[in-house]
């Protein structure tokens, strides 16, 4: 079956296709309204060297080269399940991703928060960045680092407004729409296929019925030919006797 035949079949089943398309549109609208968008915020923090590593009246931003490994340690500690679960426990559906900032080679920590509302995203971001500062302090306390040698941390950027992320919404709506459309087309195709099969069976049955009289006529012809041959045979035998 080519495309033209398929389209003609769908056109014949318009009473299935049209309501199905209307239902598909309704499902798409409902899914779009039901699935809420995500809200995303980002914040970056910079590690700073201890006072003992900086000359008197020196600029701390000129001595960041040795802090990349320390930033990796903090990221690893903050990315543990224990830390992340504690931060999102009161915010169902929220997600936190903590990495080294890929846009810079310095010891910057990037925190990305995704939540179900703008307010939740803001709260989680602030709490996460505060917790990062605490984790850095705890790590240094464990190793007994003196005050002048302690690595500091400060916030560089903190988003004040969330960015809408429609990915989940689009995927959900698209999946629901595609599912309903496939159901509609498959239903119409199934009905058209059954109807076509019935028509073919009807034509085949008609041909068999029409062939019966022909067969009956053939049998009659055979009987007549047999009777004629029998009469000729009897006549021939009678003539031979007379001779």
TrEMBL record:
Keyword check for Transmembrane: yes
Organism the protein comes from: Rhodoglobus aureus
Sequence intervals crossing the membrane: 14-35, 170-191
Annotated spans, Disordered: 196-243
Keyword terms, alphabetized: Membrane, Transmembrane, Transmembrane helix
Keyword Transmembrane helix attached: yes
UniProt feature, compositional bias: Basic residues: 231-243
Protein's name according to its UniProt entry: Capsular polysaccharide biosynthesis protein
């Amino acid at each position: 079956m080519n495309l033209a035949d398929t389209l003609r079949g769908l056109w014949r089943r318009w009473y299935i296709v049209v309501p199905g398309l209307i239902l598909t549109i309704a499902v798409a609208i409902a899914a779009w309204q039901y699935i809420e968008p995500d809200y995303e915020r980002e914040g970056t923090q910079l590690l700073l060297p201890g006072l003992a590593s900086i000359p008197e009246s020196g600029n701390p931003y000129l001595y960041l080269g040795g802090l990349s490994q320390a930033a990796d340690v903090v990221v690893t500690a903050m990315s543990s399940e224990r830390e992340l679960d504690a931060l999102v426990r009161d915010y169902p559906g929220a997600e936190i991703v903590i990495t080294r900032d890929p846009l810079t080679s310095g010891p910057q920590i990037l925190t990305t928060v995704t939540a179900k509302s703008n307010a939740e995203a803001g709260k989680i971001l602030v709490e996460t960045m505060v917790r990062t500062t605490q984790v850095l302090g705890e790590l240094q306390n464990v190793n007994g680092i003196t005050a002048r040698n302690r690595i500091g941390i400060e916030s560089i950027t903190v988003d004040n407004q969330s960015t809408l992320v429609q990915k989940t919404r689009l995927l959900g709506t698209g999946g629901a729409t595609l599912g309903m459309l496939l159901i509609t087309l498959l239903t119409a195709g199934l009905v058209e296929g059954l109807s076509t099969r019935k028509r073919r069976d009807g034509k085949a049955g008609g041909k068999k019925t029409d062939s019966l009289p022909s067969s009956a006529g053939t049998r009659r012809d055979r009987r007549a030919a047999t009777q004629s041959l029998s009469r000729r045979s009897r006549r021939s035998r009678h003539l031979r006797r007379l001779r």
